[in-house]
């Protein structure tokens, strides 16, 4: 009888511990349920795209577009190159003279892009690990809600600093990106490359700008949110009287010949 009461006491204790454990607070924050992403909106050119003021949770502008009838279920994500740190982040618009969104959607791909939460030099943890990953997830949901089909492959691309971001994205998140194309990205040693270009230009301007007529010099005040401009007056010299050339020469003497 004593063994039975001891057994029941152990059972009750285990039940209490199990109840306490099931109601204990977790060290992982519980995220509130987000409302489902809306579908893309029909545009005048026949594409379905996000609204013009679409923003990620960080405030970064983004755009997703697709031509539902042509969609091959693949998604191309494009990120821009370096932008002036004094400018407000905005969406990249052109590939040369061709709108990027039209280029990819005409080929059957869905297209997504973002201007990130800031401008200037890339910040891998927040721009790539934050904005870019959120963009891909949001784009997949929007495409599914719009077309009723799921995405297949996700290809990342970009040029210049966007090429650097492409390499970072593919290397760090291979489960998200199926492949990438880095166009002229500084993927060797970005800091050293930028330092070389900036140092060389600074030395060149210092040594030669005062003696080269109308040599362009960049002026910018970041503290005043000034986007910067080329100083058109730097290096200009006072105008000189025009020199008139004549095709008439004096009549030579002796063995010289005359030309008029």
Write the layout of secondary structure elements.
Layout: H1 2-23, E1 41-42, E2 48-49, E3 62-66, E4 75-79, E5 94-95, E6 98-99, H2 100-106, E7 110-114, H3 124-147, E8 154-159, H4 161-172, E9 179-183, H5 190-208, E10 217-219, E11 229-231
Parallel strand pairs: 4-7, 4-8, 8-9
Antiparallel strand pairs: 1-2, 2-3, 3-7, 5-6, 10-11
Low-confidence runs of at least 5 consecutive residues: 10-35, 240-247, 255-260
- Overall, the morphology is elongated
- Return the CATH topology of the largest domain: Rossmann fold
Alpha-carbon distance between the termini?
A: 139 Å
Q: What is the CATH class of the largest domain? A: Alpha Beta
Helicity, in percent? 25-40%
Beta-strand content estimate = 15-25%
Helix and strand succession?
A: HEEEEEEHEHEHEHEE
CATH architecture of the largest domain: 3-Layer(aba) Sandwich
Structural class: alpha/beta
Sheet of most strands: 7 strands, mixed
Strand order of the largest sheet: 1-2-3-7-4-8-9
């Amino acid at each position: 009888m004593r063994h039975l009461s001891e057994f029941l006491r152990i059972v009750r204790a285990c039940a209490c511990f199990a109840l306490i454990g099931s109601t204990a607070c977790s060290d992982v924050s519980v995220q509130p349920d987000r409302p489902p992403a809306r579908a893309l909106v029909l545009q005048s050119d026949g594409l379905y795209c996000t609204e013009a003021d679409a923003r990620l949770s960080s405030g970064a502008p983004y755009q997703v577009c697709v031509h539902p009838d042509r969609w091959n279920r693949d998604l191309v994500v494009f990120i821009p190159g370096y932008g002036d740190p004094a400018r407000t982040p905005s969406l990249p618009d052109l590939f040369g003279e061709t709108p990027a969104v039209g280029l990819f959607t005409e080929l059957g791909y869905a297209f997504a892009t973002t201007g990130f939460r800031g401008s200037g030099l890339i910040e891998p943890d927040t721009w790539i690990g934050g904005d870019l990953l959120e963009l891909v997830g949001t784009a997949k949901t929007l495409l599914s809600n719009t077309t009723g089909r799921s995405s297949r492959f996700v290809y990342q691309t970009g040029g210049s600093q966007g090429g650097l971001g492409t390499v970072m994205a593919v290397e760090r998140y291979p489960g998200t990106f199926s492949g990438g194309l880095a166009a002229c990205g500084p993927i060797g040693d970005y800091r050293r490359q930028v330092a070389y270009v900036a140092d060389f230009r600074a030395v060149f301007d210092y040594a030669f700008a005062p003696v080269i007529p109308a040599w362009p010099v960049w002026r910018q005040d970041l503290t005043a949110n000034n986007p910067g401009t080329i100083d058109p007056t730097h290096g200009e010299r006072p105008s000189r009287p025009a020199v008139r050339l004549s095709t008439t020469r004096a009549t030579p003497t002796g063995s010289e010949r005359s030309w008029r």
